[in-house]
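User: structure tokens for this one?
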Amino acid sequence: MKRFLTTLFLAFTLSAGLAAQISEKEEEFLYSIHAYDGKEYKKTFCREESSTIYLLADDQSFLMPRKTFVYYDAALNMWRIDSQGVNEELPGRLEVTGTDNKVTYIDKTVYTYYVTPGEWDMQWKVYTGQKALDEWKTFEELREKIREEGKKFQEEMFKYRRWKEEMNKKIKEARLKGKNFEGLVQELNAKSPPPYPGRIHYELYPLEMAFIINLPVGEYRIRLLDSEGRVYENSDKKIITFSRERSNSVGFIYSATDKIKLPKQSRIPQAIIYINGKHDLYLRPYLQNEFNDFYHEKLSNNDGRGNPLSTKWIITEPLYNSWLEYHRSAEPGPEISLEEQFKVERSRENPFGYRIVYYDRNDAHKNFEPDFRSFYLPMDGKSTVIKIKVRDYKDKYYVSGEREIRVVWYTAGLVFLLILAGIPIAVYLFITIKRIILYRTAEKS
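Assistant:
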């Protein structure tokens, strides 16, 4: 009985603590936001207490006014929506007023979007209006076709397995009776299982109605009007649209042979990359955009925080159809490296436990995908500086695609240099200790 009461007390205490971390749910007017952040679409919402919505200029974003419950989750340190009770989409028109007092009215438009897996990230595609309806109809027809093919495949696979079991049974009986069963084996091996049905390589999200916002850089006021022109309470908000600080700048992901699974990034143009000269280097350029950190954080999460005095880089996509020009300090002229595919294989002979080989699609790796694509930059054992440039398929250099690589080599005189660098410290310590001894001797005398 005592153990039962103790367990009950602990359960009550724990549940009370969890309940205390969640604030009371309140019904609010809010704008659900589906905003493009320069790479993908992010979902957030603007509560009644929040006065400003942040969006990327000259790109489509979507606003959906609604009434729903909002609460603060202290465990996750964030505001959340509880749409299980009330989730009322509000009708009306959106009134947008610019700084020049020009007023524009926007009606709701149906939209949808789909995402396909990219090499590094997800590739987004948005459809609006009649195009969205057509795409949804096509997607539904394709999904129904795949579903029917799946049913047919399962039926045929069931028949094939039953037939295979019967054939195995006949072969077993023939073997036990000493009869010739080679014809049965040939028949069994000649028949293949039914082919797998096709599949949809993307997922189209359900149709939604929203206000499409696509505004140039600036500040705007918005409010929601009902069918009679009356303003919904708490619908008045400010919209700040901002642009990229820098667009399509070139960054690099790079890693040495001994740390192929721990890549580093070089984001800032004209930056210096320091590497250990003992290991070859693999580099992959990509395109990136620079944003104000505060604005971008607010776009991704309207209750988020950011530093208005700093910026952040967002990777958009790999830099395709390019090649790398590199010039070693110990060589008279530049060389060219083409992008290659590589495979990481386990190796007991290698001290790292693996080795990096070129991807062989037709032979050794025909049943596998490459582990990564990269430009290969071997070390020559003598160059201390390597300057690299990225060129596009039109043989033009990217202005921000230049880097200087400084190679650190181990030299035989390293111990001597360390001793030489330690001489001033030793002299300082000697003088300090000598002064302390003289000071104490003078005090005693």
